[in-house]
Design a protein that fits this description.
Number of helices: 21
Structural class: mainly alpha
Largest sheet: 5 strands, parallel
Shape: globular
Helix content: 40-55%
Strand order of the largest sheet: 3-2-1-4-5
Strand content: 5-15%
């Protein structure tokens, strides 16, 4: 019996040789090293794929805003590929199982992907590499999420991460400039694989990029301010570079750090960097080249003009060989502060009902929009930990990872350890704390931010907007908000809490120094100016 056309077609498909471009965190087509590596394999067709394993690239802690942003990024890639009659194939499952199933239909020659430097991805990647080794499939792992390979930085420093930002800059300077971004690929020249619908069904591929609801997410009032996708990111990237160039012309730099505006639409590209919609190398070199152009060929002054990108690299290097970086007990760089266990106060904090309007506004904005300015993030982080509530930073890390669109494991955990004086800061330093009654007022003196996100207080006079419990009864009645009834009274007395927490930190420091007889070798700031810059304040404004 002669084979049917379908059987003939299937036999032909089995003979097709494939190079896989595995999208993970680098959700873009520009500066795409894996795509370049895939098309180098002669006689193969390129298979662009994203695998929904329940973690990549958001970790298991992921809320609606974050997954919606991810799916917008994937849809953007898919739409760009469809202009050349291809698509982004999406499939659920463990990556090694997905590739094993594909290998039953096609001959996979190589699997190309960018390095995910955070150690939480090692188990996933090692499983894929082991599968490839056993099936004689070439693996091409490139550096695309960072400027340098964090593991190379650690090796250059003698096997351990640099302990200060200044030393980190010294080590990376010795490694040389970051690589320039790859040239864009002309997609019309790429020989993409086309998978028949019957094979897609058999391999359990999604028919298109899924929705949050398809993945089991339920919307609960979220309304994010960022739109995901490479094309949108490039638009804002070009505006940002022009913004930086204008600052260079004015004789300044880092314009987005000056006069932070927590009310206007955000200018940051951090969500796009987190998901890789914008290449960090493209960003770095665009700023450096703009400086050189403005200053007629004079080189940029060290890393000063790109310090925010270098801080990101610093945190990635700190975590690269530390799988317990997001923990306390097993984390070698984290001091085990004896935080309180108080679920009631934690629930109050997470629901934005602390009675401190600036803190509550920040929590509510993060849950609603998946975003908050870093001034706000620093305030809520310190309030939860060593500032007021004395609760573990792990709770804050979980909250940020779940709700903030731009929260990645390495940078987010590093920031929480720093703010809580658990690491990165001077050992158990509690010499200053951000005052939730004053910290916000210096950048939003009229409390417009509070009125937007804590509408219960929208009619309060300006002089009481940060401390509504101090308003006389008649003022509260006129504002239509009675403190203790319509909006909570403060969960703690800030002045009392600060004094108590400071004393506990000092006692713990004495205890550690007595036992160790030296300052713990955890990561620390280079100097006091670094602390000031991190919190974006003059210490007199604390």
């Amino acid at each position: 019996m002669a084979p049917s056309n379908l059987e003939e077609n299937f036999e032909n498909k089995m003979m097709e040789r494939v190079s896989v471009v595995w999208f993970r965190n680098g959700l873009r087509l520009h500066d795409n090293a894996p795509l370049h590596k895939a098309i180098e394999a002669e006689g193969t067709k390129v298979l662009p794929i994203f695998i929904f394993d329940g973690e990549t690239p958001t970790t298991k802690k992921c809320g609606y805003n974050k997954v919606q942003f991810l799916l917008e990024c994937l849809n953007d890639i898919d739409q760009q590929l469809r202009t050349v009659d291809s698509r982004l194939y999406c499939v659920p499952g463990k990556p090694e199982d997905v590739f094993r199933n594909i290998s039953k239909k096609y001959k996979i020659e190589k699997i190309c992907f960018d390095q995910d430097a955070e150690p939480i991805w090692l188990e996933r990647d090692n499983a894929v590499k082991n599968f490839c080794a056993s099936h004689k499939i070439e693996v091409e792992e490139t550096i695309g999420a960072t400027l340098w390979d964090p593991l190379e930085i650690i090796e250059a420093n003698g096997g351990t991460p640099p302990l200060t930002y200044t030393h980190f800059c010294h080590v990376t300077t010795g490694l040389g400039d970051p690589a320039r971004p790859y040239e864009d690929v002309d997609l019309s020249t790429v020989n993409f694989l086309e998978i028949d619908e019957d094979v897609m069904l058999e391999l359990k591929f999604y028919p298109c990029v899924p929705t949050p609801e398809t993945l089991g997410f339920v919307k609960n009032g979220e309304c994010k301010v960022y739109g995901g996708g490479e094309l949108k990111a490039l638009k804002f990237f070009n505006q940002r570079v022009q913004f930086e160039k204008e600052a260079f012309l004015d004789g300044s730099f880092l314009p987005n750090r000056r006069d932070p505006d927590i009310l206007k639409p955000p200018k940051s590209l951090s969500p796009d960097l987190k998901f890789g919609c914008i290449s960090v190398k493209k960003f770095y070199w665009a700023i450096v080249d703009a400086f050189v152009q403005v200053h007629e060929g004079n080189p940029a002054p060290s890393y000063t003009i790109v310090s925010q990108l270098i801080w990101r690299e610093f945190f990635y290097a700190m975590s690269a060989n530390n799988p317990y970086y997001g923990e306390i007990e097993r984390n070698p760089i984290c001091i085990n502060v004896p935080w309180y266990e108080d679920n009631k106060r934690l629930d109050i904090f997470l629901s934005g009902q602390t009675g401190y309007p600036f803190i509550d506004a920040g929590i509510r904005q993060i849950k609603l929009e998946g975003w908050a300015h870093h001034v706000v993030r620093n305030a809520v982080s310190m309030f939860l930990t060593r500032g007021d509530l004395w609760l573990s930073w792990i709770h804050g890390l979980d909250f940020f990872l779940t709700n903030l669109i731009d929260a990645d494991w390495a940078v987010c955990a590093g920031n929480w350890m720093w703010v809580s004086s658990s690491a990165f800061e001077k050992a158990l330093n509690c010499s200053f704390s951000l005052d939730p009654r004053r910290y916000g007022r210096r950048i939003d003196p009229y409390g417009e931010y509070i009125k937007r996100y804590v509408p219960e207080l929208k009619n309060f006079p300006t002089e009481y907007i940060y401390t509504p419990w101090e308003a006389p009864d008649n003022v509260q009645e006129e504002a239509g908000c009675i403190i203790g009834k319509d909006y909570p009274a403060p969960v703690v007395d800030h002045d009392v809490a600060v004094q108590r927490n400071r004393q506990m930190m000092e006692d713990l420091q004495v205890d550690i120094m007595t036992k160790l007889k030296h300052v713990p070798l955890h990561i620390k700031p280079s100097d006091s100016d670094e602390i000031k810059n991190f919190f974006r304040l003059d210490l007199k404004d604390k």
